[in-house]
Amino acid sequence: MKKVLVILADGFEEIEAVTVVDILRRAEIETVTCALKEGLVESARGMRMEADTEISRIDANEFDMIVLPGGLQGAKNIDEDENVQNIIRKYMREERFVAAICASPYMLAKSGQIKDCMMTCYPTFKGIVEQLCEYQLAEVVVDENIITSRGPATAPEFAFTLVELLKSETAAQKLREGMLYV
Q1: Which residues 6+ apart lie within 8 Å of 138 measured at CB?
Q2: Tens digit of pLDDT for each residue in 20-35?
Q3: Could you list the active site residues?
Q4: Is the dihedral of CA 144, 55, 60, 165 positive or negative?
């Protein structure tokens, strides 16, 4: 069974995190939420969540994909966390999936984690991303093992794309239909 790690950092965008976790779990993909610190994680709009585990307790070898929700402060906190950066470097070397939405693709590009690829991100960061990668005006962009998406409104399509990559197009389509997302 495929296994996904979703990082929750203070300031995360609620729709991007919760939608992805919900859709992946509906697809019966093992999905683990991971906080950067002990205790509750506070979202961009003050929603407090308890993650399944903490970054210091995970074994990155157990996962097939890492998902980085956006929210500008959440993305900055992910960018500043050395444990997460080490996982991203490892996954890039091993060509495992790295999925990022909203401000997180910008942070990946800015930090040098990804470059010379096709990607999308929240429109505010387009100019900066274009200096490092080929910006695509699309809901979701898949470039080999890198999956990026634009923002809150694209979160469902982002999650369905992850299901396609980890399971199949058929599984994603059945899930879309069952959720009336057509």
Answers
A1: 120, 150
A2: 999 999 999 999 999 9
A3: 102
A4: negative
How many other C-beta atoms are found inside a 10 Å radius of the C-beta of residue 14?
Answer: 18
Q: Could you identify the residue written with the tokens 């999650």?
A: 159
d(CA 92, CA 130): 20
CA-based nearest residue to 70, from 45, 101, 113: 101
Dihedral over alpha carbons 117, 119, 121, 125 (to 10 degrees): 40
Q: Which of 22, 80, 71 is nearest to 46 (CA)?
A: 71
CA separation (Å) from 110 to 51, 87, 113, 132? Answer: 27, 17, 8, 8
Count CB neighbours of 80 within 10 A: 13
- pTM of the predicted model over 0.90: yes
3-state secondary structure of 136: coil
Q: Could you read off the pLDDT of 66-89 as tens digits, one per residue?
A: 999 999 999 999 999 999 999 999
Structure-token match 């994909």, residue found: 65
Contact 45, 17 (CB under 8 A): no
State the DSSP code for 180: T
Residue 112, pLDDT above cutoff 90: no
Is pLDDT above 90 for 180?
A: yes
Virtual CA dihedral for 160, 149, 76, 8, nearest 10 degrees?
-10
